[in-house]
Amino acid sequence: METFNIPATPLLMKEFLRQMGGTAVIDGGLATELELHGADLNDPLWSAKCLLTSPHLIRSQVHLDYLEAGADIIITASYQATIQGFEAKGFSREQSENLLKKSVDIALEARRMYYERCSKSSSGGTGDDRILKNRPILVAASVGSYGAYLADGSEYSGCYGEAMTVNALKEFHRRRVQVLAEAGPDIIAFETVPNKIEAQAFAELLDEEHIKIPAWLTFNSKDGVNVVSGDSLLQCASIAESCKQVVAVGINCTPPRFIHDLILAIKKVTTKPIVIYPNSGERYDADRKEWVENTGVSDEDFVSYVNKWCEIGASLVGGCCRTTPNTIKAIYRALSDRSPAAPGQKSKTAT
């Protein structure tokens, strides 16, 4: 079986994308799939609850399903996993840190299992509608915002109160980021960043703690212009651009209809690869803690945007809340049809 040597340095993303031919596929919604397979996520820990109750679902029913749908990057179940959140549930500091490490271990094990399936496959790329293709795969350790820990919907508003500071956010996230980096992912995904001060906190943490693992920062927007707090997207993306350990910047958990203009805005301030993984377009009711049905777009409509996003600058595309392996498989096939070739190579269509 071929091995892939992608350096865990600021060069990681450029080398990864070079090996992938210019574009790569990120996985889709985690909680959506866990609930589909019977997990009860009505808990302040949300999807991180499954690190305690059903890690096998994360590994075999989510990570593996997304890999077999064509995802080149899988994101760990640590978005809402925090040391403070686990301690509030009665776990010790050591137990809480071990649960964070476990989220990375589960994803790494899923990747190993996938490669084993690829080595046993004789189909040359697909089998039983599964994509079994030996290729570089990255594990991204998810770091959700402070608002995700609060479990009150404030990651969708960025309203942390006037007393919240960059330093306070750094202290909240510091040990969590250290533990996840030490667990051995390929990249750290700072996701659903809702305001400028948290972007600044993440950038300063990466520098202060000499984190060796590269990172991406993705923001969310509800108007297609600014991040959800009302802070300037240009200012937020500029913070990511100025941090040497940040290897990609973009948007997640945002309706697809806003993505085109957001990519064009980010391109004004960054030279780094742009990462895009929107939600399905459905509206989240923070008071009822549920998604409002019939407010999103179909997989077909979602995927219809993908090639245009890549044409105007996106290099990494996937899905966030309420997207599924079917969505990701459709993205994989759309990008395979587009098949951007590496320099000096003819374009080819993947299986």
From TrEMBL:
It comes from the Eukaryota. InterPro entries: BHMT-like, HCY_dom, HCY_dom_sf, Hcy_S-methyltransferase. SUPFAM superfamilies: Homocysteine S-methyltransferase (SSF82282). Gene3D superfamilies: Homocysteine-binding-like domain (3.20.20.330). Keywords: Metal-binding, Methyltransferase, Transferase, Zinc. One of its GO terms (molecular function) is zinc ion binding. Its cofactor is Zn(2+). Residues 12-335 form the Hcy-binding domain. Zn(2+) binds at residues 253, 320-321. It holds the Pfam family S-methyl_trans. GO terms for biological process: methionine biosynthetic process; methylation; S-methylmethionine cycle. PANTHER family: HOMOCYSTEINE S-METHYLTRANSFERASE-LIKE ISOFORM 1 (PTHR46015:SF1), ZGC:172121 (PTHR46015). This is Hcy-binding domain-containing protein. It comes from Gossypium barbadense (Sea Island cotton).
